[in-house]
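question for whoever is on the cluster today: can someone run the full assembly for these? two chains, 228 residues total. i dont have access anymore since they changed the login thing
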Amino acid sequence: KAGVTQTPRYLIKTRGQQVTLSCSPISGHRSVSWYQQTPGQGLQFLFEYFSETQRNKGNFPGRFSGRQFSNSRSEMNVSTLELGDSALYLCASSEVLAGGSTGELFFGEGSRLTVL
Amino acid sequence: KNEVEQSPQNLTAQEGEFITINCSYSVGISALHWLQQHPGGGIVSLFMLSSGKKKHGRLIATINIQEKHSSLHITASHPRDSAVYICAVPPPLDASGSRLTFGEGTQLTVNP
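^ ran it for u. tokens below:
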């Protein structure tokens, strides 16, 4: 099976711009979660999508949004970029277990965003 | 929100040593994740466990639900085990179990 694919791997933007990141999950995985990793805050949960619906959301401002398509691929968007948005953005896909909870996480390599 | 504490923050060992990394959390959970992150950022899931003990090769993870504590053990450590090890837990009443809170990580360095 192919792993989780994130694109782009690296990108540079300027303040005020917006960015869209893409995540293709492992085939058959219907849950996609997004995380932000910064040196100061560590790893933080952004949101999770399952069956094209946002099922869970972390404590991030509305500038951070996402969506999931019918093939389970997911995108996240950050609008009006700020310097503090510079981070490694990771997505993970997982199966959904019988009770509705997410299973083991499979991570992509991440998208490293630099905001100048 | 679940508070997660890992110890130690940094750990240096000699090749062959037995390693233990600890993780404590504040409230009851459905499952706990142990993750490994190598330089460059890639994260690999090592274990997801909700009770007892799991073993994969030289790695062993245990969890004590009553004490809200988990340990990750590495037997016969090797320089390729050098990485950051992170535990993560969901909050209580999170049916999806996806809204994870992460520990700060343990930087492990194994010297030859």
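summary bc i know u wont read the tokens: The mean pLDDT of chain B is 92. The longest strand of chain B covers residues 19-25.
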